[in-house]
Amino acid sequence: MLGVVLVSGSAVGAYAAWDLANTIKPGVKLGNEEQLANVPDIGAIDGGVNVLLIGNDSREGQGEGFGDPDEETAVLNDVTMLFHIAQDHSHASVISFPRDMVVDVPECVDPEDPGGDPLWELYDVKINSVLSWGGMPCVARTVEELTGTSIQFAGSVQFLGVAALSEAIGGVEVCVAEPIEDEHTDLYLPAGMNELKGLPALQFLRTRHGVGDGSDLGRISNQQVFLSALARKVQNDGTLSDPSKLYGIAKAALQNMELSEGLLDPTTMISIALALKDVDLSKIQFIQYPTVGNGSGGQAPTESAEVVNLALQQDKPVVFDAEAQQDVSFGSTVTPAPPAEGEAPVEEAPVEEEAPAEAGAADPAVPTPTEEALPSDVYGQTAAEERCSAGRTLEDQ
């Protein structure tokens, strides 16, 4: 709490510390808490970070508009993302795992009986079923086994929590190339730039039928459009340098998310956020974990998944195959949205070439990581790319 007061100064002050302290709810024991002994009270977190982010589709406590919780009783991690910040804070990546990807699940602690016999291993099950099997720690262990990395933090959020978080951020402006019409999520957006927060932001992140090819892969691509726009917003509008804004986001997370124990300290959240303050947007990468249909309604990781795993394990930034990102059936598009009526078309700004570095300018103590070229079946984008959601109308569906 002292850390919040110190970083906030007169903008938030003692009230913020008291308010956040009263917001905190019990956390989930992830199992890697011993790695967090040296988390600083304030300033950017030391070293690298791996955070598991889960979108929990449980209808419990969500009110009307999301189906009947008595009928739709599944508790699925329909969104599973691994957020990685490099050891030297030079780059970051968000890996999205398709919900229908088949995985092996290691032995997990039984959330119903933590001191009893563990849950047995599972093989070739869809990753979105792991949350209901063993809870958030089991999802974390499964992703650790899959990628060969260690996860220190995790958080799970339901529908209304996503809406609340988008409100705390202040909304995100996204590009829509063609109109989005989705009667399943009640989302109807015109082509052009759309500012989204609250319920519309949630609907945009949930829509599947209204974008790409109507698949979950299309939804992942759509989420990357939103998240890249979010990254640009929080860097460009000074969110990561504004203690009062960071406080508001931390409070919204504490109120609306189920968090691992290591994230219950708001100063830890702020320390993680500050690690991204100076990362170049071209070095923040959103990666769709590469899969292929397995013939049984699921997705299986391809050989290229190991390249993604090694980049994570070796802490390397990645480079997408630019040609492979064009005209993917489920992907976003570089086609700019048409201007609103009466507006002149927006001309694309010329790309400025980077000036060559001066000899001797590099710090020999901090070697630049070698970039990992991703195979052509690995899709995604950087936060610097302003891609557009590939909308679909009801007629197209």
From TrEMBL:
On the tree of life, the source organism's domain of life is Bacteria
Membrane-spanning parts:
none
Q: Kindly give the Pfam families that the UniProt entry links to this protein.
A: LytR_cpsA_psr
Coiled-coil boundaries? none
Q: Where is the composition biased (Basic and acidic residues)?
A: 384-397
Q: Where is this region: Disordered?
A: 330-397
Q: Where is the Cell envelope-related transcriptional attenuator domain?
A: 77-235
Renumbered to this chain, the Acidic residues biased-composition regions fall at 344-356
Q: Which Gene3D superfamilies match?
A: LCP protein
Q: Which family does it belong to?
A: Belongs to the LytR/CpsA/Psr (LCP) family.
The protein, known as: LCP family protein
Q: What is the lineage of its organism?
A: Bacteria, Bacillati, Actinomycetota, Actinomycetes, Micrococcales
